[in-house]
Write a structure and sequence with these properties.
Radius of gyration: 34 Å
Shape: rod-shaped
Distance between the termini: 102 Å
Helix content: 25-40%
Largest sheet: 4 strands, mixed
CATH superfamily of the largest domain: DnaJ domain
Number of strands: 11
Number of helices: 9
Order of helices and strands: HHHHHEHEEEEEEHEEEEHH
Structural class: alpha+beta
Number of domains: 3
Strand order of the largest sheet: 6-7-11-10
Strand content: 15-25%
CATH topology of the largest domain: Helix Hairpins
CATH architecture of the largest domain: Orthogonal Bundle
CATH class of the largest domain: Mainly Alpha
């Protein structure tokens, strides 16, 4: 019985080869040894050996087993699981099609082979990057850096897929986690809306005023405060929230918070004036007295 060829020799790489070097060697040899290109009498055998070698060495557990025992599964017949994502792109390069390798290739089409399982990871981005969108560069555990396209208006918890960036050529799915902003907050129910706490003093709330309100674009907007505005009131600035990738815009809401003057900041005269005003206005709890 002929001895099985060494997988590293089949791929033409050393035993210390990286995952990328193994992948590159396989892709290069697959173009050369595929039976539709290789006219040697033993072309099918050569290609099968190549597939077997890549199936073992591209899998971390199988490779460790092979390095230790000389075969991937001691005492068992080895089953080949071809990486059809790689073959598909190789066939497309060779034949200019969608992965088919000529008229006789129907039995070898990859459509029945399961795709590599997708991996998931968390991706933390700033509040501004979530609002404006852009490219987020992520350094992976293997030292590589990938670029993730962040759509405008992405929400916390939303998932972003990067094809082919995961384990064994599978997709990598990022779960978005968004940092806080010192002024603005987002609504979980309406993620395109922005909320801003707007402090007013007693006079502004009582008599009304026009105040400047910041926005995420850096532009300040004039907002008219109606006389008699109570704390907790919500004033809406339509279309001044977050704009998503499709052009849909949310609103900006100013949440009123009335800030009383600090007692330490008042002069005796001001204290007397406020006391006199309070006596004249009476307390706002008169309705409680008529409650049953």
């Amino acid at each position: 019985m002929a001895m099985a060829k060494d997988h590293y020799s089949v791929l033409g790489v050393g035993r210390d080869a990286t995952e990328q070097e193994i992948r590159d060697a396989y892709r290069r040899l697959a173009r050369k040894l595929h039976p539709d290109v290789n006219k040697a009498p033993d072309a099918q055998q050569q290609f099968t050996e190549l597939q077997q070698a890549y199936d073992v060495l591209s899998d971390e557990k199988k490779r460790a087993q092979y390095d230790r025992f000389g075969h991937a599964e001691p005492g068992r017949h080895q089953q080949v699981n071809v990486n059809f994502d790689d073959l598909g792109s190789i066939f497309e390069t060779m034949f200019g099609g969608g992965g088919r390798a000529g008229p006789g290739a129907r039995a070898r089409e990859p459509r029945h082979q399961p795709r590599p399982r997708a991996s998931e990871a968390d991706l933390f981005i700033s509040f501004r990057k979530a609002v404006e969108g852009g490219i987020e560069r992520v350094r992976m555990s293997d030292g590589k850096t990938i670029e993730v396209a962040i759509p405008k208006g992405v929400a916390s918890g939303q998932k972003l897929r990067v094809r082919g960036a995961g384990t064994h050529g599978g997709d990598l799915i990022f779960r978005v986690d968004i940092g806080e902003h010192p002024l603005f907050k987002r609504s979980p129910e309406h993620p395109l809306d922005l909320y801003l706490e707007l402090p007013l003093n007693l006079v502004e709330a009582t008599l009304g005023a026009t105040v400047e309100v910041p926005t995420m674009t850096g532009e300040d907007l004039s907002l008219r405060i109606p006389a008699g505005t109570a704390s907790g009131r919500k004033l809406r600035l339509k279309g001044r929230g977050i704009e998503d990738a499709h052009g849909k815009k949310g609103d900006l809401y100013a949440l009123i918070r009335i800030v009383p003057p600090s007692p330490e900041s008042l002069t005796d005269e001001e204290r007397s004036m406020l006391q006199a005003l309070g006596d004249r206005l009476g307390h706002p709890r008169a309705s409680w007295e008529s409650a049953p």
